[in-house]
Design goal:
It is built from 2 helices and no strands. The chain has 44 residues and is mainly α.
Length: 44
């Protein structure tokens, strides 16, 4: 079974991956961006 994801979901996944891949130097901006995307998804 293959599921389609929205552009917003894809953006959130990419933001989380980018945050996780910044292994030693975690970016506060990337984390904040991922949180904002997530909150927009659950509160809209």
């Amino acid at each position: 079974m293959k599921k389609e994801i929205t552009e917003q979901e894809n953006d959130l996944i990419e933001a989380i991956r980018n945050y996780k891949s910044s292994y030693h130097n975690k970016s506060k901006e990337l984390r904040r961006y991922a949180i904002i995307l997530f909150e927009e998804m659950i509160y809209d």
